Amino acid sequence: MKLPEPSLCVADDATFWPWRSWPDFAQWPDKDRTVVVIPMAGLADWGLDQPLDAEETVLMHVLREASLHKPSDLRLLVLPPVRFVLGPEPGCAFALDPDAACDLLEEIIGSVDAAGFRRIVLFNASPWNEELCKAVGRDMRIARGLQMFCVPLSGLGLDFHPVRGGARTKLKAVLAELTGAAGGATKESPGAESGAAILQATSLRLLGILGEVRDQAPLAHGGALHPVSFP
């Protein structure tokens, strides 16, 4: 019996970077306006009665739904999720120290740059890595002249943070929809919006942001920063 092909993650095959060949990248049209998404998801127990990969489950389903519904004029490439990130709390697993996390992200971004792509989105589910995304994005803008964008899942209304996220009702509903776990919004609040509807609305918000990223004017001088002289 032939075993099924292993899945790297939840992804839309048409936009998934690993399924592209080197000739695809060499002949890729309009690289300057292609949006490359680097997903980031930590491994943690968020007290939601979910597996440690709950962040990735939500993040990648939102991203896949957005990819599946993108317009034809939005060129999109999605890398596999970065799973080893900062994790300063006791419930986090397989966490990196700050220097290693920065180095890992910079190496991944450098490989995207080497392939000729300049618009890069760090799409992050982990509350503990939002500042890391901002810092690495800033550094890559300065060092490589790249157009860097940071999109936290919390900014789309699905926040894993145990305090900032409040009751996390929408997040619980989405996780219940995706994992089949009990205790979703349909049971806790019969009149609440369903997990499927929340997932769709969140993916459309992300899709709108990705369209705005594509439409941003290219950086002046190819992204190079000119020194500023002071009197």
Structure in words:
The chain has 231 residues and is an alpha/beta fold. It has a single domain, classed as 3-Layer(aba) Sandwich (Rossmann fold), CATH 3.40.50.10310. Helix content is 38%, strand content 11%. The protein contains 7 helices and 6 strands, in the order αββαββαβαβααα. The strands form 2 sheets. It has a 4-stranded parallel sheet, with helices on both faces. A two-stranded antiparallel sheet has the order 2-4. Strand 5 (119-124), helix 4 and strand 6 (147-152) form a beta-alpha-beta unit. Helix 2 (54-68) packs across helix 5. The model is unreliable at 183-188 (pLDDT under 50).
Radius of gyration equals 19 Å
CATH class: Alpha Beta
Number-wise, the strands total: 6
For the sheet with most strands, the description reads: 4 strands, parallel
CATH fold title: Rossmann fold
Helix proportion of residues, in percent? Answer: 25-40%
Distinct helical segment count? 7
What separation lies between the terminal Cα atoms?
A: 76 Å
CATH superfamily: Creatininase
- Give the number of domains: 1
Label the overall shape.
Answer: globular
Strand content: 5-15%
